[in-house]
Model the fold of this input.
Amino acid sequence: MRFMFVILILTAFVASFANAADESDDSLILYFSFDELDGDMTIDHSQYENNGAIIGAPELVDGKFGKALKFNGTSDWIEVPHDPILTVETSVTVMAWINAERHMGPNNQRWQGVLSKGNSPRSYSFYTESPSECLHLSAGGSGSVCTGKIALNEWQHVVGQVDDGTHRYWLNGEMVGEFGGKNALPGAADTSSVFVGRTPEGNRQFLGLIDEVRIWNRALTEEEVIAEMESGYQSGTAVDPRAKLATTWGYLKTSQR
Done:
């Protein structure tokens, strides 16, 4: 009986990480953990392997999970050349952990780019902005601003979503905006690169740290958003579950004696 209890506990423990950044998810079209770099490239952990070119000299530093990149706010960013799999038709969810040093772009530009694809046409541009100190999402020629303020110099989990004409935002796992009646996405008409740490327009580069960048070509549920927020590449959480599993197993074995 005690052995069956141990098995059930271990099964539940492992299952708790099953949805952590599932690389086999066909809808996960881009995933940068920044834990693995290859020279001047950052590795895409999705199944599509669209690695990103490191532009400038962002620093590899300790992140929310593993490593992150620190962008200087003027000449650092990541560029991913267009690939058909990066096309978003009706829905998209963009997500990252950020630790921003400002809300605006350089030279008092209103917006600071976190993630973007395209400008004319535009699939999405996901910013922090000033003076609202909030998140801003622009897609298909229409935009919106969330209601939650971004704290500076600390880690914040940010999510922007377009779901068939509805914009949604989450900040640290809480929904902070839902706005309907927005324009459709341009789909295949947008053949632009994906950028991390800037948008295609000038003077919108990001100042601070970015970690765990993920993009899906569908609308995640709130439950999925929260599960992804709490997970990092391989580790599942900020503490390696393999170490925790060994500790748990050792404790359970000891408790049987």
